[in-house]
Amino acid sequence: MPEGDTIWLTAQRLREALAERELTTADLRTPALATVDLTGRRVTQVLSRGKHLLIRVDGRVTLHSHLRMDGSWRVQAAGERWRGGPGWQVRAVLGNVRRVAIGYRLPVLDLLPTSEEHRVVGHLGPDLLGADWDAAEAVRRLVADPGRPVGEALLDQRVLAGIGNVYKSELCFLRGITPWTPVADVPEPERLVALAKRTLEANKNRVGHVTTGDTRPGRRHWVYGQAGRPCRRCGTTVVGAEQGPPGQARITFWCLVCQDGPAPAPTRRTPTPPSTY
């Protein structure tokens, strides 16, 4: 699932292509929206909220989408051949005389009054890349359940909006704790929150995530996707194991030497996750 900085960048590109322009094409290819016609309306604003995308249109309506694991929005010049996937995967086409935005494999696509956006994003915690970022509230939510493993808390969008599995693993490494460390045992949780904010801010204007400072392929992460390889800091083999409730567990990566705290037995053969780039 894309991290919050990826969604922020997607919103920026959609904003540049669509905002303050009238829609000449508005094709919403889901049964619930098949009869909706937004052509002739002006896109007033595009913004991200955590991992959610909100496209506001004249008439005080908002097109809401969430990419989950496989969705994407592609922006290209009007009239160009679509290149993000086969046509049957397209769920939305929004365009003007200059640019077109194509939504592929969107698992969530709905239209709602702008005044009711809280129905889809009101449950979220402070947005790490939002204009209304509130660090104190983020820390308060993080420490509210002291017995919870910090990795699970970081992934909970009700605590912090924008962190995914990549940053969960990398932030825990950078703070020297395992993802299974209870929140109560996390030293200076405000520093963890501040680090999360800095990390997403540093990556929001580029494709992919870099936490090591090294942008070369294969060197961008400390532990994420590195199972079976030597830790870049100490040389110990990086390991991985599932974390999370049944049906929602994600492979989590950590270093047995550089990170302190509880952890399960490493998975014997940990699959390397697909590229997030």
Explain the overall architecture:
With 277 residues, this protein is an alpha+beta fold. It folds into 2 domains: 4-121, MutM-like, N-terminal (N-terminal domain of MutM-like DNA repair proteins, Alpha-Beta Barrel); 135-255, Helicase, Ruva Protein, domain 3 (Orthogonal Bundle), CATH 1.10.8.50. 21% of the residues lie in helices and 21% in strands. It has 6 helices and 10 strands. It has helices at 4-18, 118-121, 135-142, 150-155, 165-175, 189-203; strands at residues 25-28, 43-49, 52-57, 61-66, 72-77, 90-95, 99-104, 108-113, 238-243, 250-255. A 4-stranded antiparallel sheet has the order 1-6-7-5, covered by helices on one side. Strand 3 (52-57) and strand 4 (61-66) form a beta hairpin. Helix 3 crosses helix 6 and helix 5 (165-175) packs across helix 6 (189-203). The longest helix has 15 residues, at 4-18. It is elongated. GO terms for molecular function: class I DNA-(apurinic or apyrimidinic site) endonuclease activity; damaged DNA binding; oxidized pyrimidine nucleobase lesion DNA N-glycosylase activity; zinc ion binding. This is DNA-(apurinic or apyrimidinic site) lyase. Keywords: DNA damage, DNA repair, DNA-binding, Glycosidase, Hydrolase, Lyase, Metal-binding, Multifunctional enzyme, Zinc, Zinc-finger.
